[in-house]
From TrEMBL:
The record marks 293, 349, 372 as: Electron transfer via tryptophanyl radical. Keywords: Chromophore, FAD, Flavoprotein, Lyase. It comes from Streptomyces doudnae. InterPro entries: Crypto/Photolyase_FAD-like_sf, Crypto/Photolyase_N_sf, Cryptochr/Photolyase_FAD-bd, Cryptochrome/DNA_photolyase_1, DNA_photolyase_1_CS_C, DNA_photolyase_N, Rossmann-like_a/b/a_fold. Its cofactor is FAD. GO terms for molecular function: deoxyribodipyrimidine photo-lyase activity. Its EC number is 4.1.99.3. This is Deoxyribodipyrimidine photo-lyase. Binds 1 FAD per subunit. The keyword Zinc does not apply. FAD binds at residues 217, 229-233, 261, 362-364. GO terms for biological process: nucleobase-containing compound metabolic process; response to stress. Belongs to the DNA photolyase family.
Length: 457
């Protein structure tokens, strides 16, 4: 009987898994995950994501065991490890999901060459980690969309493949050794409130979300204290949820909330098709504004204050403290902290993107770098010079100040929306502020510096 290897990467699930479905067709299968040391060397193995990954791998293994199989884990150079397993199992083909980063592309090409040199085949499957494949819809005369609205129009009209169930059984050949699965115990530097990973918890979240969360999504997705978004982002990043299946299920649920939610899933695909076409956008400006950014060297103290959540702007600081505590931040928080760093402080977007990637459990090259570029005005935003005022934003999206009080104990005794401008407090209210810093920058001075830098003054 022929043997296939299914190489799991950022698709750590059994439901709606095209590579597994293709390989499981009357064959023995080696479900393989390689802890790629190249990813560690690139500085991408942040503790929060390693912990979440460990949960995902354990859950995947448990799901495979329920079906008669198991997960094989190896560590090392991914290409070498896959080739070793292929030789041990005498497999004739490897199935894996398509990916978009430059690193993933280079790795895929090396793997293809190495396998073909041994007479084996590599099958790459689209629509495993996106609903619509990068390049699946394109504008006339270009390989990718640079503007979301027309992309979304075509994306929405694109017929999706059906979503597949999980396999009933998986037969793994005997004698293929595996390393011990990792666990989050013993990992240091984890965020205290880090979410749990794995397909089982992810699927429970989806059921609960479609039953009682998504309907209000359109109205409440920007409500900072309400925390009314899906929190699927780490599950989408590690692929414990399938975007295709999510779109189908949300569309079946129907209504304006589900539509708004599906639109966000399209944003995710949008950034992936930009990065697939412009892989240098992970580090270089997508549309440069010739900024001469301030850096760690020239704005070190302000950058530290931003990272530690002590800029003196409560909503910025609350969001940065949420990031540190949970390894996750609300989208509105991400927007306004990124605007504050890149525009009010005029610091290089790469400094902020790096810090987010060090902590975010959903830290994702496409979504993170391109959202940072969006906010820095070097990306796909059609209003590249917009600046979010943290006080106005706070009053709109945290009207009573509950989000700020949740994350900033120094301000817990300040009542109502006045918590957003503690520097204006007087008398007893002022006395209630317990050691919270004054603003590190005057907003109008920050704005003037940014306008000058962009030649808009
Ligand atoms: C500066 C900055 C950095 C970001 N970094 C990341 C990152 O590293 N990883 C990441 O997954 N998202 C990132 N985002 C996008 C967004 O903030 C998160 O996806 C979202 O907050 C996750 O919460 P949720 O799952 O509850 O989202 P929901 O609002 O429930 O949305 C559902 C899903 O849609 C996708 N989505 C939502 N908003 C966006 C968006 N603006 N761009 C792309 N996809 C989106 C996500 O996959 C999300 O899980 C970033 C945004 C900004 C402004």
């Amino acid at each position: 009987m022929n043997v296939s290897v299914v190489l799991f990467t950022s698709d750590l699930r059994l439901h709606d898994h095209p590579p597994l479905r293709a390989a499981n067709d009357a064959r023995e299968v080696v479900p393989l995950f390689v802890r790629d040391t190249g990813v560690d060397a690139a500085g991408f193995a942040a503790p929060n994501r390693l912990a979440f990954l460990a949960d995902c791998l354990r859950d995947l293994d448990a799901g495979l065991r329920e079906r008669g199989g198991r997960l094989v884990l190896r560590s090392g150079d991914l290409v070498e490890e896959v080739c070793k397993v292929v030789a041990e199992a005498d497999a004739d083909e490897v199935h894996m999901a398509a990916d978009v980063s430059a690193y993933a592309h280079r790795r895929e090409q090396r793997l293809r060459r190495a396998l073909e040199a041994e007479g084996r085949r590599l099958h790459i499957h689209d629509t495993v980690t996106t609903a619509v494949a990068p390049g699946g819809v394109t504008p006339a005369g270009s390989d990718h969309f640079a503007v979301f609205t027309p992309y979304f129009r075509q994306w929405s009209a694109q017929p999706l493949r059906e979503a597949f169930g999980a396999p009933r059984s998986v037969r793994v050949p005997e004698g293929i050794g595996s390393e011990e699965l990792p666990s989050r115990d013993g990992l240091s530097g984890l965020s205290e409130g880090l979410a749990e990973g794995g397909e089982t918890v992810a699927r429970k979240r989806v059921t609960a979300w479609l039953r009682s969360g998504v309907q209000a999504y359109e109205d409440r997705h920007d409500d900072l204290p309400g925390d009314a978004t899906s929190r699927f982002s780490p599950h989408l990043h590690f692929g414990t949820l399938s975007p295709v299946e999510l779109v189908h299920r949300a569309r079946r649920a129907g209504g304006p909330g589900a539509e708004a939610f599906v639109r966000q899933l399209a944003w995710r695909d949008f950034h992936r098709q930009v990065l697939a076409a412009r892989q240098d956008a992970a580090t270089a400006d997508y549309r440069t504004k010739h900024d001469r950014w301030r850096s760690e060297r020239t704005a070190g103290e302000e950058i530290e204050a931003w990272k530690e959540g002590r800029t003196g702007y409560p909503v910025v600081d609350a969001a940065m403290r949420q990031l540190r505590h949970e390894g996750w931040m609300h989208n509105r928080g991400r927007l306004l902290t990124a605007s504050f760093l890149t525009k009010t402080l005029y610091v290089d977007w790469r400094v902020g993107a790096r810090y987010f990637l060090d902590l975010l459990v959903d830290g994702d090259v496409a979504n993170n770098q391109l959202n940072w570029q969006w906010m820095a005005g070097t990306g796909t935003d059609s209003r590249p010079n917009r600046v979010l005022n943290p006080v106005t934003q706070a009053k709109r999206y945290d009207p009573d100040g509950a989000y700020v009080r949740r994350w900033i104990p120094e301000l817990a005794a300040v009542e109502g929306p006045s918590v957003h401008e503690p520097w204006k407090l007087r008398g007893l209210d002022r006395a209630a502020v317990d050691g919270y810093p004054d603003p590190i920058v005057d907003l109008s001075e920050g704005l003037a510096r940014f306008k000058r830098a962009r030649g808009k003054d």
